[in-house]
Amino acid sequence: MPPFFSLPPLSQGGALSQTLKTQGYAVMDADTVQTLSLAPADQMLAWTGLWNDLPADAYLRDGGRYRRRRHSCFVIAGNALRQAPHRPHWQPVEYNALHGGMQRHFEPMESTMVQSSAWMQLLTWLGRVCSDLKGVKTWYAEAHQFRIDTTDGIGRPTPEGAHRDGVDLVAVFLVDRQGVKGGETRVFEAEGPQGQRFTLAQPWSVLLLDDERVIHESTPIQPITEGGYRDTLVVTLRGGGFQER
Fold it and tell me: Residue 199, Cβ neighbours under 10 Å: how many?
C-alpha cells in the first residue's frame, strides 16, 4: 500500500505575502515556485542527483548515522547574489538545544548548483519574499542540503525537536523522498495554540516560515523499502549578518 500523505494547505502565488503576514507560514507547490522565482524546472530537477554525494554529518549528538549534508553561505542584495567565503555553521543554544553552541564544519555545496542561473533566481526570489515580509534589507542566507536516511532503521529530520532557527525566514524545499513513511511537517504558533500538520511530497514544493512567529519540526521517517530516504534543501535568511559565536 502506498504511503498516505496529508495534503498541505497550498498558498496561491499572488497571496503569498499576505498569507505569510497573516499566519506566519505558507506552502506552495512546485509550479508556483517556478512561476514566482523564474528558476527553470528542468534545472532544479537536474540538481536532484547531487543529494547522492553528501558527506555524513559528524556532529549528531544522539549517535545516529542517518543524516548527510552540505552547507554554503550567500549574501542577497536586491537581485544580486554572491557566495560568501566558506564558514562553519553556528546556532545559539537557545534555538538548538541539541547542537547549538558549537562550530559545525560541513563540506560546501557543489559549484554546478550554486553557480547556476537557476540558483541565483531561486535565492534572489527568497530575498524578495523576505523583504516583502520584513522590509528591504541585505539578507545573509545559509543553504543546507540534507539527506535523512533509514540506515539506523529510523531517520530524524529534526533531532532537536520543535524549534526556531533564529533567523527572519526559513524555506524548506522537498527535493525527493523514496521508500519511506513519516516525515510529517508540523508548524505551530510560537505564542499561541494554533498549529498545522501536513506532509510535503512533491519535488520542489516549499514551506516558507516567518521564524519569529512560528516553530516547526518534521517527524521521523521509517523505511517501507530498503534504502529509503528524504532529501530537502533548507535555506535560512537573516538580516544584519550571519549567526556566529
Answer: 19
Q: H helices within the chain, ranges in order?
A: 16-23, 30-37, 41-46, 111-114, 117-134
Alpha carbon distance 128, 68 (integer Å): 29
Q: What angle do CA 118, 129, 31 make, to 5 degrees?
A: 50
Measure the CA–CA gap between 24 and 200, rounded to whole angstroms.
18
User: Is residue 245 domain-resident?
Assistant: no
Cα 21 to the chain's mean position, in Å? 19
- Alpha-carbon Rg for the chain, nearest whole angstrom, is 17
Number of domains in the chain: 1
> Which CATH number does the domain housing residue 141 bear?
2.60.120.620
- The predicted-structure confidence for 6-58, as pLDDT tens digits, reads as follows 556 667 667 899 999 999 999 999 999 999 999 999 999 999 999 999 999 98
Backbone angles phi, psi at 95, to 5 degrees: -105, -25
Single pTM value for the model: 0.92
Q: Are 26 and 11 in contact (CB under 8 A)?
A: yes
In a domain, 110, yes or no: yes
Q: Cα angle at 147 between 144 and 152, to 5 degrees? A: 135
